[in-house]
C-alpha cells in the first residue's frame, strides 16, 4: 500500500483556463495506520489525514491522477452502531477504515 494514496471525493468539477478544460475533484486524504496490512483481515487500515487545527487535509486534484475507486469498510470496534447512521455519514462517523482488496480482482492486485 505504501506509495498509493487514498482520498475521499467530496466534489467533482471542472474549469477552463486559456481554452483548456480541466476536470477536477475536491478530495479528503487518508494515510495508512501501519507499515503492514492488518494481520486478521489482510487489508490495509487507513485513517483521515488531520491538520493541526483539527480539519481534514483536503485538496484539489486533476481527474487524470485517479487510478481507481477504493472500497472502504469502517473499523467498527465494540460500540453499537446508531440506527440513524446513513451511507453518506460513515466516512465522517468512523475514525479508521479497511481498504477492501477483496472487492474485485483489480482491487486485489492494486491494494495487495
Model description:
With 112 residues, this protein is mainly beta. The chain is built from two helices and six strands. It has helices at residues 90-93, 105-110; strands at residues 6-17, 20-32, 44-48, 58-62, 72-74, 97-99. Strands 1, 2, 3, 4, 5 and 6 form a six-stranded antiparallel sheet that branches. Strand 1 (6-17) and strand 2 form a beta hairpin. The longest helix is centred in the C-terminal third of the chain and has 6 residues, at 105-110. It is globular, with a radius of gyration of 16 Å. The termini are close together. The model has no long low-confidence stretch (mean pLDDT 87).
Task: Please outline the helices and strands.
Layout: E1 6-17, E2 20-32, E3 44-48, E4 58-62, E5 72-74, H1 90-93, E6 97-99, H2 105-110
Antiparallel strand pairs: 1-2, 2-3, 2-4, 3-6, 5-6
Q: Could you describe the largest sheet, including whether it forms a barrel?
A: 6 strands, antiparallel
Q: Write the element-wise H/E pattern from the N-terminal end onward.
A: EEEEEHEH
Q: Could you tell me the mean pLDDT?
A: 87
Number of strands: 6
Characterize this entry briefly.
The chain has 112 residues and is mostly beta strands.
Describe the structure using short key phrases.
2 helices; mainly beta; 112 residues; single chain; 9% helix
